[in-house]
Structure to design on (103 residues):
């Protein structure tokens, strides 16, 4: 994923006058733009993946991760939910009680 491609796909993200940092969720807009651009590359391919003969993951794997990845992450002590690993959250599973919320 190239930053220029995200801007090319979603012109709205490059229009600085429309990005009101304290009034709009600008980070969410860009995150969604990156996710949708990656989905576009998964569906339509890219020159890089073709050149290196490296097929992209399926949409399901990209958006949800695989069950195997979730189990491996859980065994390594990461907090896991049905969509896979929660990015940036490292919690030792034995430190949590059933029904207890994380800080």
């Amino acid at each position: 994923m190239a930053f220029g491609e995200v801007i090319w796909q979603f012109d709205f993200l490059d229009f600085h006058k429309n990005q009101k940092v304290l009034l709009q969720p600008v980070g969410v807009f860009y995150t969604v733009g990156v996710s949708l651009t990656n989905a576009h590359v998964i569906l339509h391919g890219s020159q890089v993946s073709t050149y290196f003969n490296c097929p992209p993951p399926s949409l399901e794997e990209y958006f949800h991760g695989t069950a195997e990845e979730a189990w491996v992450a859980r065994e390594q002590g990461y907090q896991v939910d049905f969509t896979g690993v929660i990015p940036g959250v490292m919690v030792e599973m034995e430190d949590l009680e059933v029904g207890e919320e994380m800080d």
Notes: The CA atoms of residues 24 and 71 lie 36 Å apart. The chain is about 45% helix and 10% strand. The longest strand covers residues 84-90. The helical segments are 3-9, 26-44, 47-51, 59-64, 67-75.
